[in-house]
């Protein structure tokens, strides 16, 4: 009989209105990378939260090395050598990197904190695994990729041998993803056992030994990755064949919808400006992609466009109207829709219901209110229509609290709201982050449909496949400047990578001529 380090046997976990895990069995071997694959809301994070002690199952048992164990809370999990990097990081933003890593297991002598001893261990671990960090940096000042390193070092500092990664690459750049997958393989070679939740089939093919697939809370099967392929895995995941190529005709650009002239935006992290004198146009009937490695000014550019941050120079015109100094609501009413990069910070009110979030930018319109009173029936009907149309899954439909939904379904809720709103320009920042292949296929179709309906689409993405497949024009941003304009039909991923890393750039004259 096979020896497993962890066995989750017949696990059932229910929430109001939904059976998140329905009699699931999962076995993890020592020293393997085991991927857990499934659509948004398939029950992957719930299952791992049961293993980590965040939830208690209604039925089933957990065994470690063949012995039944009870995991009542994360402290029990840590005592058993189980660690978890959550999809939305569990870090204290005003603490330093070192303070976050040792939080809860602070070394002390006679009640006095031994920070130097902890620092030496953290620095040694970070160097051994190539997870370079500054122990004294404050969490709110470092990039998302760095924050993830902190989460990984938290597990290593506690000497965990079973490492759970929940969507670890959803917020990383392509370079950081390659680095992380390499580190995961290193962990496995050292005898650590990895459980790896992901939607990304390329990563499973590259890093995993075995893959277990869940669909709608049920166990579908476990396969050896070397004996499988992307097509088989995607069919197991969504129950049908998925088209990985974006079908679209050539763009037929019309009038300019968005015109940005000489935009300059200050940086919050250093003395240089984050966006330096950037000009660009987006026309009706085209998808323009702003590509670049994270931290090169794309976020600040979008914040300034949408009114979330102030510019210190330049102008913005939307459909012929100057919106340089307009408020967020004024920009929205003028015809701007925005799928934000950070869904929790800028996209949703987590304690509100799904139906309230669906009308966040429209509740004052006559369709949804009369004499200052909200028409609740109209809100319910509208949100049910979007839930159905975009397959937004939740335990209690429109009255579900958004915080309780899976990350992918939170994203689908935002996308449905923003695409359905009457707009001339759709700004989509990382629109498929955290979505499964079936949902990605659908979202890409929606972006192309907006384009074909004569709308302008500005896509900001770190996913190179998405950049090459969905865009009609690619503008590359490096250190706050547009350094190149590429035609995806005539360019390669390698060429795009050279521009993104700053190794290659066009002159301003070449870019102006191309545009």
Task: Describe the protein in words.
- With 515 residues, this protein is α/β, with parallel strands linked by helices.
- It has three domains: 6-238, P-loop containing nucleotide triphosphate hydrolases (Rossmann fold), CATH 3.40.50; 243-335 and 423-515, 3-Layer(aba) Sandwich (Rossmann fold), CATH 3.40.50.300; 348-421, no CATH class.
- Helices cover 33% and strands 26% of the residues.
- The chain is built from 18 helices and 24 strands.
- The strands form six sheets. It has a six-stranded mixed beta sheet with strand order 6-9-10-3-11-12, sandwiched between helices. Strands 18-21-22-15-23-24 form a six-stranded mixed beta sheet, with helices on both faces.
- A hairpin with a 2-residue loop joins β7 and β8 (112-113).
SSE layout:
Elements: E1 6-15, E2 18-28, E3 33-38, H1 44-51, E4 59-64, E5 67-69, H2 74-79, E6 82-85, H3 97-102, E7 108-109, E8 112-113, H4 115-128, H5 144-157, E9 162-166, H6 174-189, E10 193-198, H7 201-207, E11 210-215, E12 218-224, H8 230-238, E13 256-266, E14 273-283, E15 286-291, H9 298-306, E16 313-318, E17 321-322, H10 328-333, E18 336-339, H11 343-347, H12 354-358, E19 369-370, E20 373-374, H13 376-389, H14 407-420, E21 425-429, H15 437-452, E22 456-461, H16 464-470, E23 473-478, E24 481-486, H17 493-500, H18 508-514
Parallel strand pairs: 3-10, 3-11, 6-9, 9-10, 15-22, 15-23, 18-21, 21-22
Antiparallel strand pairs: 1-2, 1-4, 4-5, 7-8, 11-12, 13-14, 13-16, 16-17, 19-20, 23-24
